[in-house]
Amino acid sequence: MPYATIVVNDYPGFDEASDLKRTGVYRVNLWVSRDTYERQTSGDDGSAIDYSVLDKVIPHPVYGPQSWLSVLNPGPVTESTVKDLLAEAHDRARKRHEKQSTKRSVS
Hints:
The chain is built from two helices and four strands.
C-alpha cells in the first residue's frame, strides 16, 4: 500500500476535482494518521473545499475520508509541512511493514 503518491493527470469520471489538466500542475498525496489529518483539516467543513487550489494542504478529493491529504504544486507555503507529512507517512509505512514482516516470520 503506498504512503505517498504524485499524480499528474485527472481520472475522468472518478478524480477530476484537482483540475490536473492545467499545464505544470501535479498533486502530492500523503496517507497520514487520523490525528494529523484532523489537525491539518480543522476548519474545513468539507462543503466548500477548492480542490484545485495550489500550495495548500487539503483533504484528498476522493480518499480524504481514509486520512489522505493532498497538496497541488507544493511551494513556499507548504514546503515544510509537506516534508513533515511525508516523513510521518513514511514512518507509518515502515512500522506497518515491520509489523507484517514480524507476523510472517512467526507463522
